[in-house]
Amino acid sequence: MQCSWKAVVLLALASIAIQYTAIRTLTSKPFQLCTLPSPQNCGLGDQETEPPFERGAVGCEDYPTIYMNSSRKTHILVLATTRSGSSFVGQLLNQHQEFFYLFEPLYHVQTTLIPRLSHSHNTADRRVMLGASRDLLRSLYGCDLYFLESYIKPTPTNHTTDKLFRRGASRALCQQPVCDAFGPSDVNVEEGDCVKKCALLNMTLATEACREKRHVAIKIVRVPEIGDLRALLEDPRLNIKVIQLVRDPRGILSSRIETFRDTYRLWRIWRATGRKPYNLDLSQLTVVCEDYGNSVSTGLSHPYWLKGKYMLVRYEDLAKNPLQKTKEIYDYLGLPMDKNVEGWIHANTRGSNEPSAKHKFGTIRDSAANAESWRLKLSYDMVEYTQTVCQKVLHQLGYKVVRSVEELKNMSISLVRDKTFAPFL
Ligand SMILES: *[C@@H]1O[C@H](CO)[C@@H](O)[C@H](O)[C@H]1NC(C)=O
Ligand SMILES: *[C@@H]1O[C@H](CO)[C@@H](O)[C@H](O)[C@H]1NC(C)=O
Ligand SMILES: *[C@@H]1O[C@H](CO)[C@@H](O)[C@H](O)[C@H]1NC(C)=O
Ligand SMILES: *[C@@H]1O[C@H](CO)[C@@H](O)[C@H](O)[C@H]1NC(C)=O
């Protein structure tokens, strides 16, 4: 039994590896001169951390030349988990006129390489995913959007597709010259309108749009730990700045229960009946808190490879004081915040009369005022359970645990301690 089980795992793994190798082979570029002064430096980084079948593929000829404008691009990476307020943070970058922003391109890597497992916890799967993810991010920061096509299903023909995940969340992909449906005066195109009216996405035009922007910002929710990105962060051809977005895990849980209704069905049963179903998949919570705790520990321990590249942002702080916190983020990036960003904040946070977002994963619905509303939605025993499992990360991030229902439901006491997380400069 043991043996055949292993064989199945090995087979599955081999098929993923073959797919991935095929993708790399099909997309590998002709030899190009490296942008680095010395050729020995070309493949810096990945050798030690990549799975074995990727070894040897790390030479510089495998990477497209990273697009280098005379004034250096900043490559911004928002590292988050689902339902942690990352759409909100994404918008704070997306709204900037000089940014090219992409919303979770790793979605395509996951659906192609590991189609049946929406959140695989298998270590080997994870390594393949991560190797592929780093490669893709590297290419995207170089504005090579063709590289992404290998992961889009069905495969784009003539470099056009209507299947790019959340295309409408990228301003640059809904504007001229990429899309002609809206004029220059339509500053705030709704995601749904963009998808409806812009029709096919021409990846050549998207690539050009990326090159014309001063900076590239990418939001990801599919990389569990910041340490998994080390090889990317140390790549001397990139100029990466990480924003690690965190949120109270109790808030994340509550938001996921509302959003992912099928996956979190048993949690809703728990909430409705007051009894924990015996077959509840606890890993939906434990894995999150474990990864999260490790990732935050790494970030806050300030390893040398994060120097100048790391800032931790609590969603609750951003929600409480969006304008000031956004300024701090831009200060850390070393870039001026433009008036579009400021305008967007005013229109979409407290005091605004905007209708709420239509999209399921919309930004507005989950923004400022709602940061602590999970307290009214989760039952006390769910909260208590989460506090036990996520004890470490709650403490690290300065979220208070509650000891009674009264404390939980009394909204005049905040559960977010004042705590400053200065960027690691
Ligand atoms: C791709 O472009 C070629 C040449 O313009 C055309 O003949 C072909 O029909 C196009 N393919 C699709 C699927 O649109
Ligand atoms: C996509 O845009 C490029 C650049 O403008 C153009 O040459 C190409 O024909 C377009 N592709 C299609 C399928 O329209
Ligand atoms: C570099 O970026 C600037 C600012 O976006 C742009 O105007 C310029 O055309 C770019 N330079 C090159 C060589 O493409
Ligand atoms: C909520 O907490 C505040 C501050 O500790 C306290 O004054 C108030 O009585 C509490 N309200 C309720 C309903 O327990």
Tell me how many strands there are: 7
**Bound small-molecule species:** 2-acetamido-2-deoxy-beta-D-glucopyranose
Shape: globular
Proportion of strand residues: 5-15%
Residue-averaged pLDDT: 82
Low-confidence blocks of residues: 28-65, 351-368
Distance between the termini: 53 Å
Which structural class matches the secondary elements?
alpha/beta
Strand order of the largest sheet: 2-5-1-6-7
Query: Whole-number radius of gyration?
Result: 22 Å
Q: What is the H/E string?
A: HEHEHHHEHEHEHEHHHEHHHHHHH
Q: Please count the helical segments.
A: 18
The helix fraction, in percent, is: 40-55%
Major beta-sheet overview:
5 strands, parallel
Walk me through what this model shows:
The protein has 425 residues and is α/β, with parallel strands linked by helices. It has a domain at 15-30 and 55-248 and 289-366. 42% of the residues lie in helices and 8% in strands. The chain is built from 18 helices and seven strands. It has helices at residues 2-27, 86-94, 106-113, 123-141, 146-149, 191-198, 203-212, 230-233, 249-259, 265-273, 283-300, 315-320, 322-333, 339-348, 374-377, 380-389, 391-397, 405-409, and strands at residues 75-79, 99-103, 160-161, 201-202, 215-220, 240-246, 310-314. The strands form two sheets. A five-stranded parallel beta sheet has the order 2-5-1-6-7, with helices on both faces. Helix 1 (2-27) runs parallel beside helix 4 and helix 3 (106-113) runs antiparallel to helix 4. The longest helix has 26 residues, at 2-27. It is globular. The chain starts with a helix and ends in a 16-residue tail after the last helix. Residues 28-65 and 351-368 have low confidence and may be disordered. The structure holds 2-acetamido-2-deoxy-beta-D-glucopyranose (NAG) (4 copies). One 2-acetamido-2-deoxy-beta-D-glucopyranose (NAG) binds next to loops.
